[in-house]
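To: structure subgroup
Subject: Chain for Friday's discussion

All,

I'm putting the inputs and outputs inline so they're searchable in the archive.
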Amino acid sequence: MRLIQEIRHDIVEPRSSLASVRRKTRLLAQELAAEELIRWVQDELNGYPDGRDVPAYRRLAASSVGFFAGPFGRAVDNYPIPLSLLPDNVREFASQVVLKNPVAEIEDMAARQMTGHERWPPEAVLLVRDKLELSGGFVLIDARKILPSHALRGVLDSIQNRLLEFIITLEGISVGSDSEDPASEMPREAVLKAFHTTVYGDRNVIAIGPEVTQNFAIKPGNEEALVSALQSLGFDSADLDDLRTALRETPASSPEGKQQIGPRVRQWVGDAVAKAAQGVLRVGAEAAGTVIARALKDYYGF
């Protein structure tokens, strides 16, 4: 209980660094024997490795600017790149930064009021060069995404608030325990539920957890229940009409005879996840695929 109280105190103490709080949380995660919590704390402390899902609160809206070179050695730098001129497969990339940095680096950048930069890969520059030529013969040579310092502070606030909610929830779970070390006695299921709800949950993002599909209560073949559930995630009527059309396609069978969601429905799910990444829905991109797939599995009765 003492470690939990120390973490709560440090979170609300302005002089405490978030990295220091995370190290204490790493000790708590070890006591709780919660592997998912351990991995989350390690990723926050060390940075998210390639291939690891990055939480929605680290996916931030960004703007892109370019360096354009013209004739006679002339150049234009920091020219805003209009997203509307970009092809669909580049537009999402150009308008979002996935912040994988260790939390200590983010704290340092925010403290120095630094602006975050992420260069476009050369392949992306070449892909859009013919669509972004400026009058006077200026062509795109280089491009980068810009992340304002207040967005970095927003990430830190989000991490801090989520961790505080998690700690408060753990205190509620441990109420009534006579043990000096109640962490080891907490039910694993309750700890994991608290973790997913407070850390991966959001005021605008549905938590990733088993309770999501249970609340949907979709019986096999009940199209209205499925549509109603997905409407609660923020899909508009046009999206849902497209889904109704796709649902008319009978699920295909694999060579092993197992049921599969049809290709048109799979395409709809892919478009839905892309829409979630743009922040349009009340579910983040990280959770969208899981939540929607579970709802569809309930509908199909898989």
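Points worth raising on Friday:
Residues 202-215, 252-258 have pLDDT under 50 and may be disordered.
DSSP finds 13 helices and six strands in the chain.

D.
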